[in-house]
Design goal:
D-Maltodextrin-Binding Protein, domain 2
């Protein structure tokens, strides 16, 4: 009887320790928010400003995973992130329609630009995006694509399609499979052209030897949304943490910070706040 009682106490103690350890893991997990976002929000330095403020105010820790928008949404589908900050509207709409997100809110926008060597061998300066791509293709000038299914890559593919050009397989069309900052470096090394978001380019342009050649086209608008994920798709999602970050990105205080970001260093903001705006006002 004593032996059975001892075994019972050992088993009970083991179960109790296991439950306490599990509770500790759950508690630790609930204090971490996994943010899957685009390389542009990281490379521009915006998250270096905003994340520490969010962490201080919320008591939560943010683990930022900087990838292309397509890959960020794949992470969301698998429950490998708690919240998304992305800029690929068509893909985002499908993501929501497929039930992976429960809330999608406007955060901000900037714009895409086509940059290249100052010599501009394809003579694209000042023309529309479609005309710029036509001239690059006709002159067989090197064009460096991210080729990574990011929001920037999706925008680029749409622009080629609108210009009725299929660049894949052409010697002058080279894909890196890398983020924006690294792709800019490759374009600089090859004296080629590339499509980039303005914020990343301005943050990294020193020493690149690339200049802005095509800008201001309405088709080059670059719009960011924050997406809360559907817990029904994965029990791993930190719903409370994800919502806290999404709310933080859309409150007035944060929107004001976004609107001022870059002004001191570049003389103009790198992003324009959009929370609460009618999507139609941005052409969505």
């Amino acid at each position: 009887m004593r032996k059975n009682g001892l075994i019972s106490r050992i088993v009970t103690g083991f179960i109790l320790c296991t439950l306490l350890a599990t509770a500790g893991q759950v508690s630790a997990a609930s204090k971490t928010v996994i943010l899957a976002t685009t390389t542009s929000t990281q490379d521009s330095g915006l998250l270096d400003l905003l994340v520490p403020i969010f962490e201080k105010e919320s008591g939560l820790q943010v683990k930022t995973i900087s990838v292309g928008s397509g890959q960020a949404m794949k992470m969301g589908e698998k429950g490998e992130a708690d919240v998304l900050l992305v800029h690929s509207p068509d893909a985002e709409k499908k993501f929501m329609a497929d039930g992976f997100g429960v809330s999608r809110r406007l955060v901000m926008h900037n714009d895409f630009i086509i940059v290249g060597p100052a010599a501009d061998p394809a003579k694209i300066k000042g023309v529309t995006a479609a005309e710029a791509l036509k001239r690059i293709a006709q002159s067989t000038s090197i064009f460096v694509s991210r080729g990574d299914n990011s929001g920037t890559n999706a925008k680029e593919k749409g622009l080629w399609k609108a210009a009725a050009i299929t660049p894949d397989g052409q010697k002058w069309y080279q894909q890196t499979g890398l983020g924006m900052g690294q792709t800019l470096n490759v374009a600089a090394e090859k004296h080629g052209y590339t499509l980039t978001d303005r914020a990343t380019f301005l943050a990294l342009k020193k020493g690149l030897g690339l200049v802005i050649l095509t800008e201001g086209d309405s088709k080059l608008l670059n719009i960011y949304h924050v997406i809360e994920l559907n817990p029904a798709k994965s029990p791993k999602i930190n719903v409370i943490g994800g919502k806290a970050f999404a709310d933080f990105m859309t409150v007035k205080k944060t929107q004001d910070l976004i609107g001022r970001f870059g002004v001191e260093k570049f003389g103009a903001p790198l992003f324009f706040p959009d929370a609460g705006k009618n999507p139609a006002s941005l052409g969505l």
